[in-house]
Amino acid sequence: MIDPDRFEYMRARLKERVKPSRYMHSLGVSQTAEQLARIYGANENDAAVAGLLHDWDKALPASELKRIAKKHHLAPKTVRKNMPGVLHALTAPRSLRKEFPELSDEVLQAIERHTCGADDMSDLDMIVFIADIIEPGRTFADVAPLRAAVGQVDLDELFYMAYKSTLIYLLDADMSIHPDSLEVWNGIVSQRAQRMEARKSRVIVIE
Ligand SMILES: Nc1ncnc2c1ncn2[C@@H]1O[C@H](COP(=O)(O)OP(=O)(O)O)[C@@H](O)[C@H]1O
């Protein structure tokens, strides 16, 4: 359980660090992640904190993000050069660990994975990833079906929908895609196929 005063302190520190619109987005992600955690049975405090701090390094200049990523081997050269937008997620755990030593590995991992995901996402990882996309301030064209699916589909399915919409967005915008994302996507679709298959065989048994 996080101490409310500590949460307030984190909020205040974030407010000093990012621009107002990013701060509002972070509050939205925090609240949405907390709601998702309540609905899907994850730790609500962890979700609120990870959501709040997920964009901690977002305001750092690209040159600084690239320097940190290079120094600590966080991303290959092609990612540092062509997709600097993903670097803030990879660098944040390092600075957050120094700033707030009480943050758990689970929370830091969810922050690290909020942009590109990973092939073994925890429930908390998925919750923060999804909350980043559907928080109330987001106005993407295809955000409505994602919001409508909350609580109607299981968390894996919601993550599948959110990841797919991110990839479609990147393709539509002619943006580079992190090379690991294809592997993540392949894992998502193969696990989904297995879930569908398992569901089908359960239905046959009942019939
Ligand atoms: N898998 C990916 N490969 C490359 N770029 C990505 C990927 N996912 C997101 N991005 C880009 O990285 C940037 C930061 O992503 P993110 O932190 O999720 O979004 P935002 O800054 O809107 O909160 C965005 O410009 C986004 O388009």
Automatic annotation (TrEMBL):
Record bears the keyword Transferase: no
Reactions that this protein is recorded to catalyse: P(1),P(4)-bis(5'-adenosyl) tetraphosphate + H2O = 2 ADP + 2 H(+)
Listed EC numbers: 3.6.1.41
Family matches, as SMART domains: HDc
HD domain boundaries: 22-137
Gene Ontology molecular function, alphabetical: bis(5'-nucleosyl)-tetraphosphatase (symmetrical) activity; metal ion binding; nucleotide binding
InterPro entries attached to this UniProt entry: Diverse_Catalytic_Enzymes, HD/PDEase_dom, HD_domain, YqeK
Keyword Nucleotide-binding (UniProt): yes
Classification via Pfam families: HD
UniProt entry keywords in alphabetical sequence: Hydrolase, Iron, Metal-binding, Nucleotide-binding
Superkingdom in the source lineage: Bacteria
The protein's name in its UniProt record: bis(5'-nucleosyl)-tetraphosphatase (symmetrical)
